[in-house]
Structures are given as C-alpha cells and as structure tokens.
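The records we work with from here on pair a chain with its fold. Here is one such record, which you should read through line by line:
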Amino acid sequence: MSWGSRLVELASAAGEDRLIASAGPVLIQLRDATGESAQIFRRQGDWRVCVASAERPIGLRDTIPVGTQLSMKAGSAAQVLLAWEDHDRLLEGLQNARFTPTVLAGVRRRGWGQSLGEREPGVASVSAPVRGPSGRVIAAVSISGPIERLTRQPGRLHAEVVCNAARVLTEALRKNND
C-alpha cells in the first residue's frame, strides 16, 4: 500500500467518531423501516469492518456485531466501498472478487449495490455510500437478511431507504466539519 493511500485511510479514520456518533438513530430508523438488520462498514486495508449496527430484534436475521471483519471480495458493502476507488485500487480489489467490473459500474451508476448469497448463501444485502466532507466514500451503510424476505431484487425493495440513510449520514459529517 502506498503512503498516500495509507494517509488517506488514517485521515478518514478521524471522521469515524463523527460517523459513529450520528449512526445510532439512523441505523435504528433504517432497521425499523426495512425490518432488517442494518450496519455501517468502513474499509481497513483488505477488510471491511462493521463500526455500527442495529440488529433485527426477533426472527431470522443476519447478525454482524460491531468489530466484525469481513472480506472486501464479496457483498454489497464491499462493492460500494470499492466502486469509487482509484483505478489501481479498483483493479487490485477485483482480483478474486465474487463481483465483476460490470457490477461495480452499475453500483456507480445507480449509487447503491446489492448482493444475493455473495458473502454467505441465503443472505441478501443492499448498501449505499457514505461520503466524507471531501466527497470521498468513507463508509457503506447496509441492510442484510434472508433472501426469502429481501427477495432476489433487494435493491428494488430497499435501495431508496438505504440511500436516504446514507445521505443523512453524509450530511451529518458535512455539518460537523463546518
């Protein structure tokens, strides 16, 4: 990893406290609106780490505790965290990934990602980017749950509300930076 990209990651970590401070109510609202578990992921090197979550209180759920490290090679949050990276990091991230350049182009075009059984069989998810004050993607807000509930087109059901949650978090980070 180059020093430049490492410094960018360290600088973005400074925004993490503001992100987490804003996350609770937004994730609870997202969970209640969708009926699914909601999370925020940040990239740390080759991993994405859950930095905040609101679990579905009852029934079948996809539980991802805070601190969980997941691969950057599968899942809608990984797609979102990778889609806006510079060319070299994008190519590096696509090596052995469960998604393709075409999928990432779709994420950039729509402004959200979805996955069906990509990270774990039977689990679907929808994610959208949270941007820091500079406009750079610093996190992904996600919902995840069983494909039976989220259907084979989870984005059609939930992209709008997930994107709204991402916008609220992005605005909170901009306000805190003024």
About this structure: DSSP finds seven helices and six strands in the chain.
